[in-house]
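Team,

Forwarding the record for the chain on the shared tracking sheet. I've put the sequence and predicted structure together so nobody has to dig through attachments.
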Amino acid sequence: MKALSHIFAENGEKAMRRILMIVFLALAGHVSNGQQLPGIELIMRLEGVDSPEDLDPYDVERLESLLNRSLRINHASLSKLKEAGLLSHYQAVSLIDYRSRHGDVLSYSELSAVDGFGADFVERIAPFISLESSSLPGMVASDFGTSHEMAVKAASKTVIGSPETDPAAFSYALKYALSDAGPFAAGIAFAKSYDGRGLKPETVCGHIRYDLKRGKGKVVAGDFNARFGQGLALWNGMSVGSLATPSAFLKRSSGVSASSSFSGAYALRGVAADVTFGRIRFAPLMAFRHERKSASLLPAANVSYFGRHGQCGITHYAEFSITSERTSIPDMKTSADFAVCLHGTDMFAEYAYDWASGSSAALAGTVFPVAEDMRMAAMIRFYPPGYSPHRSAAARSTTKCTNEHSVSLSGEAALGGWLDLSGKEGFGSSVRRATCTFSLDAACFPEAKEGEDPRDIQLKANTEWTVMLTKAFRLKSKVSERIRTWGQPFRTEIRTDVTYMSDPWIATVRLDAVCSEGFGFLSYLEGGYKASKMAFYMRQGVFFVDNWDDRIYSYERDAPGSFSVPAYYGRGVWTSFNASWRFARWGRMYARAGVLAYPFMQKKKPGKAELKLQFIFDV
């Protein structure tokens, strides 16, 4: 606390400015509803984050795929329900039990009555699922037939006003997926980035998968993901994440799942299985990686017990590094985890031991209802400085699961009455007039980040308010504050969106201000049209950010499989255009064009122009 007092004493004027900004924001308010939301907002609601930059790119690609090819919950086995990453184990088991006793779920209202779901959760997952039905009570749904999906993407980027730089760059990606071919499924993807030379793909990602009978498990060869527990030991992928809402506190582990991502950068490669014996799941895997002068092997296994209300499991892995001179074990961890749901309250924890450093890490949390329209979440985390963050993706305050002792609290509430949305009927056609979320995170770093201080401290606070001004106008505002004892001690951000939504038209005005080392400002106006078969959006923006510590992130619309959250820095303007068109039952087209320039800077800075085209074919 002395360190924080010192910060306020040395930066009193800056602190006062930030307090005034926070008071201003508190008077502004915040907004959210389900009226024809863009895909990225639907994903943010499901993942429980308030900013696109807090999303995992792999999860975005997976959920974008579900937006276009919904999870058939009346057809999916327990293994597929969990692998999709939409449901917790408790919800998946509850749905399987309901289907066996009452038959297929035929409406979203019926699904909200299934134990463990509820109307609010069903509204969040509704865009990602379908209720196709072909069975009677006690029967298993029949197969829907083999399906094929192919995506082709090409893009070109040109640097403007810099003769010393390569004037143009080219990228492409190809992806093919086969599913529901009996017990078999397969996928493969090739990609070349702008930095790659020639036409040879830089990454190749693919798999072959075999599903065991009666949904008892699967075997995957090739590229796959392994995500167990709460991510403290083995959870591959780039999990950015935040703890802005209670929905983000509890991770929904998917176990072993096949991967054929455009990038493939975070997938494991080898052989993995996921087999269920009654209430016990055994998931062994062997991954390998080969480089020019070295190789590595990663044997791992998870054993989990699943009950009616929760699960517990043990995970162990050891990474063997092999060179011509020696073989070593640079990373080895063992973890134990559990997650239960009792009377609407989720409780979860994980403990992990790092054999290489001899240190232990742990986390524990809960998500619980406070009232009919309010719920909260709390979590404590203990990650010692010696704990290796390699292959970990648990909740955290900074970028890595190490050197952190922290506690987090979050809540969300719905306020006011209900508002009927224009042009909508049935489930989800009414929303609350206002919603509010808040989060607090306090972290102590035993090993100082910078300088000679014995330790560092960081406090983060975030609040959002969502208000439906009318049936068509939405106000969405966010205020975040970060105070820490190293680097720039303060960072305050205020973001406000005013959105007009009246099917099929949508328009948004954003104002985003950051105060840290100096002052940064970004604003854009976006208009669009969204119908059943086509959509297009055009955005015009401007930004003034003179210091890198004041940089502002803003999500840019793109085609499925491409996730872009650029950091705007300097003084410039940009224009972007995005369009999608389902030209046939079996085909979709996506196009993007964008130009970025820096006309307001005294020191000349090159801009860039980008053109991208993508086709997706479904058969």
